[in-house]
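Why should sequence recovery work at all? Because a backbone constrains its sequence more than one might expect. Tight turns favour small or flexible residues, buried strands favour hydrophobic ones, and helices have their own preferences. The token representation captures these environments compactly. In the example below, the structure is given first.
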């Protein structure tokens, strides 16, 4: 946090701890004052209250807090901060000090990447929609063709059954073929 939560000193936290800038907060029931759920809490740091000098930094946390508090005013990474750990964050902080031209370039790159992302998303969406539409059309066409084929097979089977019955009744083969739509050869094979 970039502000002091306890400006008027009402909580008394600063007098209770050697780290008045660090808050370890847990949720509790207001009536019973019991911790509500011990696995959920907040760790907050008030950077304005962190006032250690470089020679007072003893822990890595102290070094991080010092860097976060003073990063905007640093021109280079101080020697008392380990370059392996803090070098990358310092480089990231340097981006905040970019010139207007470089910031404009970065913004144009971001705009280009955003446009490409939108285009690729639209393309994927269109492909998925086209695939679904093609699948539905193909399914409908297949069903129609299957239905037509089934009807044709059913009509042929019915014609064969009728021709067989007429042949058993002794009707002339030419008349049976004419009445059922079958060829004379088909009627003879029955």
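From this structural description, the recovered sequence reads:
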């Amino acid at each position: 946090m970039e502000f002091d939560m306890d400006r008027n000193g009402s909580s008394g936290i600063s007098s209770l701890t050697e780290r008045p800038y660090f808050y370890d907060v847990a949720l509790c029931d207001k009536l019973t004052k019991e911790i509500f759920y011990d696995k959920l809490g907040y760790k907050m740091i008030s950077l304005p209250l962190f006032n250690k000098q470089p020679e007072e930094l003893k822990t890595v946390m102290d070094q991080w807090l010092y860097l976060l508090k003073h990063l905007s005013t640093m021109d280079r990474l101080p020697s008392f901060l380990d370059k392996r750990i803090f070098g990358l964050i310092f480089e990231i902080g340097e981006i905040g000090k970019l010139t207007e031209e470089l910031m404009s370039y970065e913004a144009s790159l971001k705009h280009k990447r955003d446009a490409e992302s939108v285009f690729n998303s639209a393309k994927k969406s269109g492909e998925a929609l086209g695939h679904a539409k093609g699948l539905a059309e193909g399914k409908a066409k297949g069903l129609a063709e299957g239905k037509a084929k089934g009807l044709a097979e059913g009509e042929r089977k019915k014609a064969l059954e009728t021709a067989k019955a007429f042949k058993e009744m002794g009707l002339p083969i030419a008349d049976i073929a004419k009445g059922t739509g079958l060829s004379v050869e088909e009627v003879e094979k029955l």
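A few observations help interpret the result. The helical segments are 13-16, 60-70, 83-95, 100-169, 173-180, 184-189.
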